Amino acid sequence: MKKKLGFAARVFCFLLLFGICYHVYCRWITPKFFTDTDWPTTTTFAGFYDLEKDSADVLFLGSSHGVTSFIPQEVYNQYGVTGYNLSSDQQGLVTSYYWLKEALRFQTPKAVVLECYFCFPYIADEPLNTDESYTRKALDFMRWSPVKAEAVRTICEIDTEQDPWSYYLPHLRYHGRWLFDAPDRNDYTFREMAGYAGLKGYSPLHFYLGEKGEGFEPHDMEEADGYAQMAPLMLEYLDKINDLCRENEISLILTITPAVSANIDMCNAVRAYAQREGCTFISFNEESVYRQMDYRMDVDNCDDGHPNIWGAVKVSDYIGGVLSEEFGLGGRTAPQWEETRDDYAFTMDACERWHEGELDPYLSLLDHEQYTLVITYQNDVYALEESTLEALREFGLSAELAGQDGCNYLAVVSDGRVLTEQLTFEEAAYQGSLAGGRIPLYARSTRTEWGSGKTAVSFGEEEYYSENSGLHIVVFNNEKRKMVDSRWYET
Questions:
Q1: What are 404-449's pLDDT values in tens digits?
Q2: Nearest-angstrom CA–CA distance, 412 and 390
Q3: What is the distance between the alpha carbons of residues 358 and 352, in angstroms, rounded to a whole number?
Q4: Which end of the chain is more exposed for a tag (fewer CB within 10 A), N or C?
Q5: 399 and 319 within one domain
Q6: Are 185 and 31 in contact (CB under 8 A)?
Q7: How many Cβ atoms sit within 10 Å of the Cβ of residue 88?
């Protein structure tokens, strides 16, 4: 009897150890998309589970058009409405339905805002109206429960090319990453990177559409008489989303976000559905809404389908007003949204930084602890303006550079702390590390043999090198763990 119990114990321990190792292996090989990418779907869905239970007033669902349009923090800052954005790139309505179903296990929202671009045919030869990889991105980090099991079964019944076992045993789908691809740094940092969900599902874009958007004319919906045909499967799951909201006494708000690619017939089709089903519909391309927001497609959109951050602020302020005035939401203080005010302010400054060319205003946008800054200077150092020296002092630097003609200057600031500041006629150099020792940092400020300045900076495998004299600023984002900008100013 004792031998049998001992054998059973050994088998149990073996299976337990094997299960732990297999889980770690599958987590390692599953692709991850954090805030160091434009579409951080892993951060979005992993971060959702960090919300306190029943803390969200509103949930946003949809495709990348929704990801880039609705800023939960902006809605909260302006109206006290708490929310989370569960949209993801190329999210079809099958995925939206199951993420809503999953979200209702943890939250009791009063409203759901659904972005409807994917109601219409997008990839005609794909059964789910979206590529398989985007469905996987959205489902891989949903927690296992009867909801996910149902989602997997449904998805694989619709798309018979997909293997349901590959969801339960991810190595069947992703083993090739281990065989043929070099491991990505995100494969080793899930716990840390997944925790940077301060934007609560929103993903910022900072480019301008420009002249392609200058001729855009908002829609006069009173003259609309055509109707785009919804994809049958998408219509079926739009009905399911509508029914699920009714069952849970949730107000469903259907939207078409600002997009040149969203024509008036698409908007009219969604409006007709909303009128028939008693839902609220908002087309941000509709003339009265567009004018009320003071929206400009050329400067408020990033491309023909996605708002940039400044456009998203306008969309979010509008939807926040609707949620507050028409649905009576908001007016409260919530700790988890209060805690992320600074994350949002940092993101706004980071986007402004891309479009700021003047030195002193640019420096002011870098005054955040999330950055590591490497600053070098080689030239007649007294050429720097006093206003620039004062801006450098805001980082905690002494910046006593006046009269030091011919010196090499090097400063490194990280997490709000000055790691080094050197002013020397010799080579100035610094060697250290970031991210708990995972990313080596090396910086050097010196001169070439013919006397011009030379700057060399490396953050792990990312490098910046210049043989131009002047002021060099290299910016590393500590949360994204990547070099995000570099500037050279010929002073």
A1: 667 889 999 999 899 999 988 889 999 999 988 889 999 999 877 6
A2: 17
A3: 12
A4: N
A5: no
A6: no
A7: 29
